[in-house]
Amino acid sequence: MFNNKVYHRIDALSGSIATLRAEGAGYGEIAEIESRAGTSLAQVIKLDGDSVTLQIFAGARGVDTAAKVRFLGETMKAPFSDALLGRAFTGSGRPRDGGPEVADNPSPIGQPSVNPARRVMPHEMVRTNIPMIDLFNTLVKSQKLPIFARAGEPYNELLARIALQADSDVIVIGGMGLKYDEYLKFRSTLDKSGALSKTVMFVHTAADPTVECMLVPDISLAVAEKFALAGKDVLVLLTDMTGFADAMKEIAITMEQIPSNRGYPGDLYSQLAARYEKAVDFDGAGSITILAVTTMPGDDVTHPVPDNTGYITEGQFYLKNGRIEPFGSLSRLKQQVNKNTREDHRTIMDAMIKLYAQYKETVEKQSMGFKMSAWDVKLLKYGETFEREMMDLSVNIPLEDALDLGWKILADCFDKGEVGIPSKLSDKFWPSR
After folding, report:
1. Angle at 28 between CA 24 and CA 33, to 5 degrees
2. Fewer CB within 10 Å, N side or C side of the chain?
3. How far apart are the first and last CA of the chain?
4. What is the average pLDDT score of the chain?
């Protein structure tokens, strides 16, 4: 029921959190706070009887206990129209690029994910022209995959390349805790390539209020869902979900909640899952595919954020030393599409990874001073060629060209009978010298 009362007293203020007594407020409801600093919006984040806790979007600076609070009777909403394309907004939906406001067709954010009974089983490949994805760990439409990386890895550059090259109708980028120059680099890269015209950006920078960081995934996914229902295949790129979890932790500490593992709130898993489960292929409409960077503090995969993420998603990409590592990276849905790409796809993938594992062992032997056999020399040549021509993130070729390149690398380094590939395939695809 709409509560149009105006309350003239706030009981407590802490950081961006305000607590007051109010009747009829609903969880997630938006409130307007009028104070000496002006008017700002807040959201109900906790209810305990008639005790209401609000999170103030712009922070509590200038807000005092005599501020007026009016509940608006509605939850946070995201606008939707084609006018969003090519634009950049804040986490609360305000224009960041100096353009006009977009207010068409507002829809609530943070809604429940789609009923599994209405979902189509993942069965179509999302092409990125990055061999370490397309060939070895194929991304599938409506899949949810994190990119695990330590600080300093070029994960935003990787996301920008995927945004440029992926065969999706719409790209939605959600940035959390980005440096301002990172946001500008994203925008400039997309603009120069012409991909900005099909991209919507919701960006929270490190200088923005913490609460807006928590809004970015929800508003990004709400807009993506609207485009998908309109028949578009949407790729959602989120960076960085650890920043999102850290914002949750900061708010939880301010609210004096009992912390769980390493200070994160006890519902961390549920909060992450609620966002990732938005990945969907609608029957008779479009789809949402999610790639989300998850940085690992201290390169620790047991950190609560990557650890919980691994239970939710359908595999992961490991970004290490500027490359997607074949070991540890996994797309659990790749077999859904590999059988439909080219007959040699799975065979060449397995053979190359097996030989690369042997190369890694040979590198260890070499570092310990063991004598190199003729086979070891071949493996060393193969591994160096594989890393340079296949693993380097600058390589930009379609899947079919990547398969042909794989055969060429094998033929340059080994004899046909040494790679463990059935003769019916090697006779057909082995390059002639």
Report:
1. 75
2. C
3. 77
4. 90
DSSP 79-130: --SGGGTTEEE-TTS-BSSS-----SS-EESSPPPPPGGGBPPP--B---S-
Could you give the CA distance from residue 231 to residue 105 in angstroms, rounded to a whole number?
Answer: 17
Residues 182 and 403: their CA atoms lie apart, in Å, by: 34
Residue with token string 């397995």: 350
Query: One fold for both 6-75 and 78-334?
Result: no
What's the one-letter identity of residue 326?
P
Residue 324's pLDDT is: 95
Question: From the CB of residue 340, how many other CB atoms can be counted at a distance below 10 Å?
Answer: 11
CATH 3.55.40.20 fits 6-75, yes or no: no
Q: Does CATH number 3.30.1380.10 belong to domain 78-334?
A: no
Question: Are 159 and 292 in contact, with CB atoms under 8 Å apart?
Answer: no
Q: What is the DSSP string of 6-72?
A: EE---SEEETTEEEEE-SS--TTEEEEEEETTEEEEEEEEEEETTEEEEEETT-STT--TT-EEEEE
Residue 290 corresponds to which amino acid? I
For the chain, give the percent of residues with pLDDT over 90.
61
Bigger pLDDT: 220 or 26?
A: 220
Distance in angstroms (rounded) separating the CA atoms of residues 333 and 141: 10
- CA–CA separation, 76 and 79 (whole Å): 10
Quickly state the pLDDT bin for 103 (edges 50, 70, 90). confident
In the three-class reduction of DSSP (H, G, I as helix; E, B as strand; rest coil), residue 323 is classed as strand
With a threshold of 0.85, does the pTM exceed it? yes
Domain segments of the chain as ranges: 6-75, 78-334, 345-429
Give the CA distances from residue 290 to residues 21, 167, 287, in Å, rounded to whole numbers and listed in that order.
40, 14, 10
For residue 392, the 8-state DSSP code is: B
- Length of the chain, in residues: 433
What are the beta bridge partners of residue 53? 19, 46
Q: How far apart are CA 34 and CA 31, in angstroms?
A: 10
Can the peptide bond before residue 11 be classed as cis, meaning omega within 30 degrees of 0? no
In this structure, are strands 68-75 and 29-35 parallel, antiparallel, or unpaired? antiparallel
